[in-house]
Structure formats: C-alpha cells, structure tokens
Amino acid sequence: MNAENTPSRGPASVVSALRLSEERACEGYLAARKAMVVTGTRALSLGRLVAEQPERADYREAWFAARATHTDALIRTEVAHERWLRAQLRTDAAWTAGAEFKDAAWLNRIIATCSDLKADLTIAWVFCDAETMHTYVRHRGAARDSTKLADWDTYIASIDLDFRPLIEHHVIDNSASGLPLQSQARSFLATLDLGRSDSEGRDLAASQGSDQ
C-alpha cells in the first residue's frame, strides 16, 4: 500500500493517506510552536523595555500588540497539537465492523471516504466455523461468554456463518481446519501488490469478521 502523490501514480492506501495526514499535522504543530516561541520572545523583550522606560507610549503599544499576537500563537499551537493527536489516533485506529457490512448505505459512505482520500479499500473478512468458534469462546474464559455457552445452540443459530460482505472482499479462514494464518496473510498481502490494476469497489485494509 503506497501513498499517491500525483494522480498518475494510482490510488494510495488509506493507511498511507492517513500517515501523510499525520505528517502534515505534525508539521503544522511544529510551525505553530515555532511561531509561539518567536512571539513569546518578542513580547518578553518589549516587556523589559517597557519596564525600563515606562514613559514610552510607543513601547507600551508595541508590547500590548506583541502580547496579543503571542496569545493568538498559543491558541494556534494548542489547536495544532490537538489536530496532530487526532491524526495519530486516526492512523493507529483499527477499523472493524460487523452488521455494517449488510448496510449498503454504510458501505457507500466508506467507499466514498476512501475515494476522497484517493485510497484503495481492501476488506479482509475473517471467517470461523461453529466448532472452532465454540473452542475459542470456551478457552478465552470471558465472563461475557457465559450466556452464550449456557445455550450454545441457540447462540450459534443466531449467527449467519455463510454471510459475506456485499462488496469485493478477501476471506481469511480462522477455522481449525483452515490453512495456517501466516500463509493466508501472505496470500492476502499479495492482493495488495502495487502492480495490480485499479478496480472499482476495492476497499481499505480493515480486518473484519463474524462474531467470535
């Protein structure tokens, strides 16, 4: 997955696009912080001049203006820092969904968002058969699973194990009978090769699966 700097280079991945956004947010924060230091130094220097020559109205006027500029720079720095933090969170977030993949409107919004980012969206749908799922749930020993295990047949009947996303996707079989996950991961990553042709409906690398 590579970032696209020009339209001729093909679509960028969402992760790369978010990384680029994070870098730009960081640059914005550093620039704002530099301006804050510069304006703070000027305000401090003028403040000393006013203290030394309080009769100078022009010094006082310049000092007041410098203080106002510095206050504005402080606010801009805080905003830029928050923007940078949000960009980092967006980049590091794991995208997951369940019932949303049955919602055409939700899917269209995701596709539109990726299109705006000039991104290639690739969906990995993680599947697990009922027997393996039962083993996983028993072994993880989570309190929230007690109701499921108490009436497993009813619970598993409520899950459509045959469901698949409405758009193009790559299936990862997490069942005990499936191929090693390392092999499946390599196969999945191969579909993200830069040399592949662009296609409509390809989607963001977001691990996805049925309830486990």
Q: How many separate domains make up the residues?
A: 2
Give the low-pLDDT segments: 1-13, 194-212
What characterizes the major β-sheet? 4 strands, parallel
Overall outline:
elongated
Protein name: AAA domain-containing protein
Organism: Actinokineospora xionganensis
What does this structure look like?
- The protein folds into 2 domains: 86 residues; 111 residues, no CATH class.
- Strands 1, 2, 3 and 4 form a 4-stranded parallel beta sheet that branches.
- It is α/β, with parallel strands linked by helices.
- Helix 1 packs antiparallel against helix 2.
- The chain is elongated, with a radius of gyration of 27 Å.
- It contains 7 helices and 4 strands.
- The protein is 57% helix and 10% strand.
Summarize the structure.
By secondary structure, this protein is α/β, with parallel strands linked by helices. It has helices spanning 14-52, 57-92, 104-116, 130-140, 146-150, 152-157, 181-190, and strands at 12-13, 119-127, 170-173, 203-209.
Keywords:
alpha/beta, disordered C terminus, disordered N terminus, 212 residues, 4-stranded parallel β-sheet
What is this structure's SSE topology?
Elements: E1 12-13, H1 14-52, H2 57-92, H3 104-116, E2 119-127, H4 130-140, H5 146-150, H6 152-157, E3 170-173, H7 181-190, E4 203-209
Parallel strand pairs: 1-2, 2-3, 2-4
Helix pairs in contact: 1-2
